[in-house]
Amino acid sequence: MPQRASQQQNRTGDRNIAYDPDDFVALVLAARVVPAGQLVVVTADEVGGRRAQFARRVLDSLDRGEVPVIEGIDLGGKRRLLVEPGQEVPAYIRPSAEEREDRHNRLTETLTDIIKAAQSPVRWVGCGPMAELAALLTAAPEYTEQLIVTQMGGWLTDYRDPTRASHNFHICIGSAALALRILPHPILVMSEHTNHPAIRVVEDWPLIAALEADAAPEWARWLATHFRRWIAVKDGSWMHDPLTLSAAMGLPFVRFAEERIRIGDDVRLYRDPFGRPMRVSEEVDYDAFLGWMHQVVTW
Question: Which of 51, 97, 173, 235 would be 43's cystine partner, CB 3.0–4.6 Å?
Fold first, then answer.
């Protein structure tokens, strides 16, 4: 990344793309609005490098071949991957301890070099599990204050499963617990706001029809197909990640409040006067957000 003045902040996006279409949409948004030299993509919850390959193909189709794609950490759990027609989810082969250490080292060295070269604040947009961020913070804690982290996840009042932490935190509890405790002032776009029905894309949404138009570019038709295949087996796709990206970019759709938060042993979050200071989402202007998202995605 070239050096930028402090107000021209570089952005690093961390996402588990090639599953729920909201990751695909977020990548399209980032590719279309983040200037050249200010975007890096790091995949999360990797599946044998398939997510990195998917992200690379999306960026290339959007004429953003200069954007680096960094393969993230394979957590080795359930295979959360929506494969292309004719493909199969690869069987998980656990790498050796030496291979895991080598991959972690390459990841953290690459990210550290990017942050060091930026010489300005770097915005980290967390749209997946926090394993990559935790690895970076552990390997290079001296750069912690240079990161402005906006992470999707967490809940305080309401969640679809109140017995556990929200999805991104639950996938890799140790990483989320570590990162949230190391970061001096994380910004959270809470699951209770991203799970809202206003941003649930279903089969008859105008967005999908626009992506399928005869004049639509190849990447748009590919995204529409991704939506159709997802909705055939799920009850919709909530735009968690695009909303989080908009907040990280400083757009006015999400309003935040300062809270003192205690992090439970399973990374559930609780208001506590002795907890860590965090900015958490409090209110969302869903209509304005959707208007912006539609305008950017539908060219």
Answer: 51
Tokens of 63: 């004429």
* N residues, the chain: 299
Alpha carbons 288 and 299: distance in angstroms, whole number: 17
Total-model pTM: 0.93
Strands (E), the chain: 10-15, 39-43, 69-70, 122-127, 147-152, 187-189, 200-201, 237-238, 254-263, 269-271, 276-284
Integer Cα distance of 104 and 130 in angstroms: 14
Give, to the nearest 10 degrees, the angle between helix 286-297 and helix 240-248: 90
Q: Is 65 exposed, middle or buried (0-12, 13-18, 19+ CB in 10 A)?
A: exposed
For 91-121, what is each residue's pLDDT tens digit? 777 788 898 899 899 999 999 999 999 989 9
Task: Give me 102's structure tokens.
Answer: 């080598």
Structure tokens at 96: 């050796």
Helices 21-33 + 50-61 axis angle, to 10: 40
